[in-house]
Amino acid sequence: MQFARDTSSFLLLTLGLLLSLSLGHPEKKEKEGNPPPSTGTCEPLQIPLCQGLSYSHTVMPNMLGHANQEDAGLEINQFYPLVKVRCSPELQTFICSAYAPECVNGSAKPVCRTTCETAKLGCIGLINKFGFSWPRKLECESFSTESCKEGFTASEIQKKLVEMGHAVEEQVLSLQTVRILMSLKDDDRSGKLNDHKFQELQSYVSGLKKEFLDYQRGKNSAVNERQMKNALAAHGINANNLDLRLNDLNFSLLWDRYSTSGQINYDDFVAILARLETLKERFKSHRMTNLPCDCVMASFSLDDFIRDTLL
User: Fold this and answer.
1) What span, in angstroms and rounded, lies between the C-alpha atoms of 181 and 267?
2) Domains of the chain by range and CATH?
3) I need a surface site. Which of 21, 139, 174, 300 has the fewest CB within 10 A?
4) In angstroms, what CA-CA distances link 310 with 146, 180, 275?
5) Distance separating alpha carbons of residues 219 and 216, to the nearest angstrom
6) 99 Cβ contact list (under 8 Å, min separation 6)
7) Residue 144 half-sphere exposure toward CB, CA atoms < 13 A
8) Within a 10 A sphere around the Cβ of 166, how many other Cβ atoms?
9) Cα–Cα distance measured from residue 267 to residue 174, given in angstroms and rounded to the nearest whole number
């Protein structure tokens, strides 16, 4: 707890210092309206603060006049404390879209005004607390809503995961597996994920990929029965877990369904863990309380049961 308090105090002190540098002397906008997108050659996104977003390539110069990523990175790092304290889940997306815009066919994708407004709404109170104001060159009125996107579909997410390297050799995640993964983050059941939720999904997939590689160590690009059991146990999915019991019979059913020649490949490995994680969360949301026994039970309607088991 003391470490957490010390870390929080350090972040706030650093935040105050950096805000004085980045927000203390705002630049005047030369003109209203969304700045024209830059055109050039797409290049890999290398700015550390912008890693893990829904895109992996940018284009320079940016709308703020930075000629390269190195110059843009020096300035964007001033916002690190704000991103770290998570005053808004959209801040990182907004800042990166301005300083290191997504490259689409050689052109910079324009900044979305809605993303800007959400980021500003969440962070303006903290910024004002230190006596500063939102940077004029990043005023939301400068941007349009034309580039705003409601969310990424399953097919778009599948493509982005491939582009970001979430494959094992020639194995990529199937569309069905991506839909299962989306169910973990699609809170409003819209069938789409916004950039923030995509970042969470991408981080989750990155962790599963690392686990898979650790188990199979590049030998056969697959895991065996013992390794699959270890993976499930590592995720709290075993016979001793009250939230999600997986006895020997159920594991055998699972193994018979997914394994081929005594092994499970990368796509099925991810699908199994994501599916069981989803079912565990669904079970928790329907969990019954004050039971007259030392047991764990849940109540489902037929519609809920069909939907959840069809995932």
Assistant:
1) 11
2) 2-142 (1.10.2000.10), 154-310 (1.10.238.10)
3) 21
4) 36, 10, 10
5) 6
6) 47, 50, 62, 64, 66, 72, 73, 75, 76
7) 10
8) 18
9) 7
Looking at 23-90, list the stretches that DSSP marks H as alpha helix, in order from N- to C-terminal side: 69-76, 80-84
CA nearest to 90, candidates 116, 56, 124, 63: 116
- Cα gap 265→237, rounded to integer Å: 19
> Which alpha helices (DSSP H) does 112-174 contain, by range?
113-129, 154-163
Which are the contacts of 173, defined by CB distance < 8 A and separation ≥ 6?
158, 161, 162, 166, 167, 181, 205, 266, 267, 270
pLDDT, tens digit, for every residue of 184-209?
Answer: 888 877 888 988 889 899 999 999 99
Residue among 140, 48, 146 at smallest CA distance from 98: 140
Tens of pLDDT, residues 119-158? 999 999 999 988 888 999 999 999 988 878 778 899 999 9
